[in-house]
Task: inverse folding
């Protein structure tokens, strides 16, 4: 956990000078400045193997996907840039706004704040998989009927967050809807209509 | 984001063996919600990340004769939704339910929540090298410190952000810690270290250790508890201040009480003076406010966070008052 940040120029200069005077530590800093990759650790039987690239497989909207992911790739990057599923939006890219919300094994997650390797073996649902053919999901239909969006940019995230909420709570109160959607931001401020849409969708879903 | 190597251990023992050499560039992660933020911000640059959540069998909430054992890889959502926790440990249920947002609770783990790094904006800015990052200064002390500590600052005024930690300390919980050398059990009350002990880290883990489980003792029949958290946004946020209280009551009279606050010190902060003052008193808001007021005389707020004292007084009063109802 004790690691010195290396991004700031003036700081790495100071860290550099300090550690050069420290001999062996200086060598580490130099190699890092030269961009040398960490050396792979030897692995014996039973020892943990580590990967710079890992083959992962998961289902997206019911379709099986197999690909090689770098550990640093987020699920959102893989969805948008490699699978061309651009419904989940990259907005804050730090797990705060909800624009990238998808379902992972039925639970809402921020795709921007989860590594693709963490989704290995999982079942992912994005907004592209919500409708069945031409028939919209009841939550999608309710967002249309109740004007649950303005610019629409946050909508895919809100849709998935709503589906995730209604899977857990079939009959949410107004306060439960608010709390359930607390992880999503709508910069148009259309919250009241979003909440109304979720309430309406809950009714439709209950009636089956 | 610079690439790193990724390990998916088959067991916690295998992960612990890998940590054995004590390489500071090897990181373990639970849900990764905190670590990923640190990597993205350039605060850390791991060579290897070990994914503990990939280890099977570490997400559980098990009741036994001693109380309840919570696997470190249990998600916060599962903890918040567990009916047994809700029934027997209200403070823990209430704390888990207000951690971050639904999406983060679905990914974040109990172990990760207990080991998360502080949110201080100077610490989180990779360009600033403060005491916590090996520098020679705390930039909050004379800088912008609205969200900082009012107790036990000095070398570092960042507050400890966890909601679960104050709740678990109020419940006298213990952490089971694993390393290649074996297991040890540490009361959570002794798990966190103030900056004066080691400003670079917040807990007693030595870099080769992993939190494996949290054990909460059996709740007594006449035990009551509650968690209150004040946040600035209506939706979700880290605590500005929070209070975890647990009392053993006879009727509405307090036999003994634990009050542990979040958002006020670099470690979860026990209000021992207020606890003492409340012994034998009724669990009412008025009594608690009086006890809190006098205990808070020990606080040393900075230029911009004096308001936390009043907030604390109120939040402690309301939390304790709720026990008597």
Result:
């Amino acid at each position: 956990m004790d690691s010195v940040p290396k991004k700031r120029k003036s700081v790495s200069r100071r860290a550099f000078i300090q550690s050069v005077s420290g001999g062996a530590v200086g060598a580490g800093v130099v190699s890092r400045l030269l961009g040398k990759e960490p050396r792979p650790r030897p692995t014996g039987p039973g020892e943990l193997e580590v990967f710079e690239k890992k083959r992962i497989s998961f289902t997206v909207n019911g379709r099986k996907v197999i690909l090689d992911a770098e550990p640093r790739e987020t699920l959102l990057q893989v969805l948008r840039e490699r699978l061309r599923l651009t419904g989940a939006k990259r907005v804050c890219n730090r797990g705060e706004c909800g624009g990238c919300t998808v379902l992972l094994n039925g639970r809402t997650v921020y795709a921007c704040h989860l590594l693709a390797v963490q989704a290995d073996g999982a079942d992912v649902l994005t907004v592209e998989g919500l409708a069945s053919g031409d028939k919209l999901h009841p939550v999608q239909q309710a967002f249309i009927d109740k004007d649950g969006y303005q610019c629409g940019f946050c909508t895919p995230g809100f849709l998935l967050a709503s589906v995730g909420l209604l899977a857990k709570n079939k009959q949410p109160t107004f306060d439960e809807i608010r709390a359930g959607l607390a992880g999503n931001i709508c910069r148009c401020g259309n919250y009241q209509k979003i909440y109304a849409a979720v309430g309406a969708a809950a009714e439709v879903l209950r009636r089956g | 984001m610079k690439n790193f190597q990724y390990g998916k251990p088959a067991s916690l023992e295998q992960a612990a063996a890998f940590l054995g050499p004590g390489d500071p560039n090897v990181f373990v992660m639970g849900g990764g919600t905190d670590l990923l933020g640190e990597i993205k911000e350039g605060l850390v640059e791991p060579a290897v990340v070990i994914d503990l959540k990939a280890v099977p069998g570490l997400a559980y909430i098990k009741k036994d004769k001693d109380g309840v054992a919570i696997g470190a890889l249990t998600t916060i959502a599962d903890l918040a939704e567990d009916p047994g926790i809700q029934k027997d440990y209200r403070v823990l249920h209430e704390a888990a339910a207000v951690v971050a947002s639904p999406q983060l609770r679905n990914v974040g783990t109990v172990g990760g929540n207990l080991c998360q790094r502080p949110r201080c904006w100077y610490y989180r800015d990779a360009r600033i090298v403060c005491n916590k990052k090996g520098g020679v200064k705390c930039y909050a002390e004379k800088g912008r410190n609205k969200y900082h500590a009012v107790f036990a600052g000095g070398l570092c005024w960042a507050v400890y952000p966890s909601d679960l930690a104050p709740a678990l300390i109020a419940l006298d919980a213990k952490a089971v810690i694993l390393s290649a050398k074996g297991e040890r059990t540490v009361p959570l009350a002794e798990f966190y270290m103030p900056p004066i002990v080691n400003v670079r880290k917040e807990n007693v883990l030595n870099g080769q250790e992993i939190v494996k489980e949290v054990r909460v003792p059996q709740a007594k029949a006449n035990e009551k508890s509650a968690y209150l958290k004040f946040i600035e946004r209506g939706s979700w946020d880290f605590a500005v201040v929070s209070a975890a209280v647990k009392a053993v009551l006879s009727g509405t009279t307090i036999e003994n009480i634990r009050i542990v606050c979040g958002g006020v010190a670099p470690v979860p902060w026990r209000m021992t003076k207020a606890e003492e003052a409340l012994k034998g008193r009724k669990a009412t808001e008025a009594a608690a406010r009086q006890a809190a007021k006098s205990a808070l005389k020990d606080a040393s707020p900075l230029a911009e966070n004096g308001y936390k004292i009043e907030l604390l007084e109120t939040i402690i009063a309301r939390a304790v008052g709720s026990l008597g109802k």
